[in-house]
Amino acid sequence: MSNTTEWIGRRVSKLLPSKPPRAEEARAVTAAASPSSAPVAGRGKPGARSTRERLEATLRHGDEALSPRMLRRVLEELRAIIDPRVSEVEGGRRAMTMAAWYAGATPARRRDLWLLMSEMFVADPKKTAEAQARYAAALGTPDEAAAEVHYRRATVSPRRRLLQRFSVYPGGVQFLVDLRAELQSQLRNDKRLQALDVEMEYMFSTWFDVGFLDLRRISWDSPASLIEKLIQYEAVHDIKSWADVKNRLDSDRRCYGFFHPRLPGVPLIFVEVALVDEIASDIVPLLDESAAAADLRKATTAIFYSISNTQVGLRGVSFGDSLIKNVVDTLKQEFPQLKTFATLSPIPGLRGWLARQAGAELARLDTRELRELGRAVGYEPPAAEHLLAALDKPLALDAKSPVRRFLMAAAARYLGQQWQEGKPLDPVARFHLGNGARVERLNWAGDPSPKGLKQSYGLMVNYLYDLKRLDRHRAQLAQGRIPMSGDVEALLKA
Questions:
Q1: Is 177 found in the same domain as 52?
Q2: Domain containing 411: what range?
Q3: The domain spanning residue 429 has which CATH number?
Q4: One of 67, 118, 306, 345 is an active-site residue; which one?
Q5: 103 and 149 housed in the same domain
Q6: Could you read off the pLDDT of 83-131 as tens digits, one per residue?
Q7: Active-site position among 237, 260, 386, 432
Q8: Which of 136, 178, 271, 318 is deepest in the core (most CB within 10 A)?
Q9: Half-sphere exposure of residue 258, counting CA atoms within 13 Å on the CB side?
Q10: Non-local CB neighbours of 405 within 8 Å, separated by 6+ positions
Q11: Residue 150 among the catalytic residues
Q12: 312 and 362 assigned to the same domain
């Protein structure tokens, strides 16, 4: 073990610069972290040299993080990781060396490493073209299947093997997940990094397939380190204290997470469930730390009130559908009397959408509706700014208010008719509807917290998981129709 440690230390020392960073390098760190100074798509900053130009150069230009000599050295170390003459174990050790260097590198130097991994480890174009030609020639012959396999192999980049070597050493999978999380903020501004991101998403989809995941219940008896992860990663309703998290793990609650054997202490995604006797319309009672636990013998309904992904680096890898299915099966085994499975969900995009579409929504109203709304907001005819100002304090609107009726109808239209690239516009709706749920009910003042008011004027929505109709709802969604209850459809006609 000591020899391995010494070897790693020597390799890391070779990668580290012999001199402290210069002033322009410090500025490069700031530039890498600042969106305002982000590079233009495709090539970094205007006038910046390409990675290949830097590798062939002698001197560093401007605020380039790594000098050409250092850039070449890092590239050599990356290539050494996938040297065909070394074993998988030795390749893993070399990857661990690179990870140690990365841990101490500045953001700008890390970005140089991403560029090398993305641009310098591509499939051999000549071999790919030859394999493609052989496949085309084999179409319709007995050799077609084998030619297709050879063609797919030829298109596999050395980048994939490089990432696999990083996964060999302990902590390597978490290192890659964290690297991709850090990479996300740079993708829009530099298209050169997309190859690395797409490759990692593809590999993670394989490594984190649901068949390799373990569903575990998280309870108050779980290790404190695991409960702390819930506090850290809760993304829907912030956990304010240990009393808060204890309430969410009480006897009438369940919390489940998916775990991967290479990341044993971290739930990749977790769901919080309340066991009640009817579909919940208000998040406040569910988060009330002083409320007594519900009688489980009377529980007929499971409410999924928070689902949180914990790893930004696993963006694009879907766990939610399988998580909900597994949790439903687990709950039914423990509580056979459960008949209803639904969510109490936020509507995170509603307020922003209405701010953009208020004028168009007003144009839908007839003369009588406009007159009523105008009297309610104090301007006839009302304009978009008048309506939005009246909606600024939604909790003060009574049930008969035309402004309140307008908002409920607009929310129903947002959830039931708004699309983006063939999918429901709202991200939470996209998730649940894609899993086969339907829009069941809109709830006024369902979340009166500052966050709820900021996102959706305090509105929340129930998505119903009707276990007998999940496939039918998915088919309906694929045909361009969002499944919804009669009550929500009525709001659209109001």
A1: yes
A2: 350-493
A3: 3.40.630.150
A4: 345
A5: no
A6: 999 999 999 999 999 999 999 999 999 999 999 999 999 999 999 999 9
A7: 432
A8: 271
A9: 25
A10: 494
A11: no
A12: no
